[in-house]
Amino acid sequence: MRRYELMLVLRPDLADDRTSAVIDRTTRAIVTSGGQIVKVAPWGRRRLAYSIDRHREGSYHIILFEAPAEAIAELEHGLLITEELLRHLVTRVERPVKAARGRDEAGEGGEEAFAAPSDEEEDEVGERIDESESEAAPAAID
């Protein structure tokens, strides 16, 4: 199964019970199609970049789940006909690549770890920004 992230933008004028009903209905649809819910995170009300159906704010919710690829089309169809939703977006989440287990050059046993990019890969990706060069506030860096 693949890991996906679903962002829901609900109408801001919905009552809390209707909002939780939409979230419950969506998570039930994921589970019945053979998926598994990893995390549900409400982000709260946020201002939209542009108005959608005369709404300037939306209630954001993130659902992280694992499901077979065939279940996504059925899920999106159900979300398209939901009146309480302003927008939704399903994206596939890539899992971190782990280093292969085995012996390293010295002959010692290797441990499972995340693969760090080499100097050549860093050049290909682009210039890394040092925290001291950042214009962000120090609290935002942590």
Q: Explain this structure to me?
A:
The protein has a domain at 2-92: Ribosomal protein S6/Translation elongation factor EF1B (Alpha-Beta Plaits, 2-Layer Sandwich), CATH 3.30.70.60. Strand 2 and strand 3 form a beta hairpin. Strands 2-3-1-4 form a 4-stranded antiparallel beta sheet, with helices on one face. Helices cover 27% and strands 33% of the residues. It has helices spanning 16-32, 70-80, 119-125, 138-141, and strands at 2-10, 36-52, 55-67, 85-92. The model is unreliable at 109-114 and 121-142 (pLDDT under 50). The protein is globular. With 142 residues, the protein is an alpha+beta fold.
- Estimate percent helicity: 25-40%
N-C termini distance: 32 Å
Average pLDDT, rounded to a whole number, is 79
Which consecutive residue ranges, at least 5 long each, have pLDDT under 50? 109-114, 121-142
Number of strands: 4
- Report the top-level CATH class of the domain at 2-92: Alpha Beta
Assigned CATH architecture of the domain at 2-92: 2-Layer Sandwich
H/E topology pattern? EHEEHEHH
Number of helices: 4
Q: Would you identify the CATH H-level superfamily of the domain at 2-92?
A: Ribosomal protein S6/Translation elongation factor EF1B
Report the biggest beta sheet as strand number plus sense, adding barrel if it closes: 4 strands, antiparallel
The structural class is: alpha+beta
| Proportion in β-strands | 25-35%
Under CATH, the topology of the domain at 2-92 can be stated as Alpha-Beta Plaits
**What is the overall silhouette?**
globular
Strand order, biggest sheet?
2-3-1-4
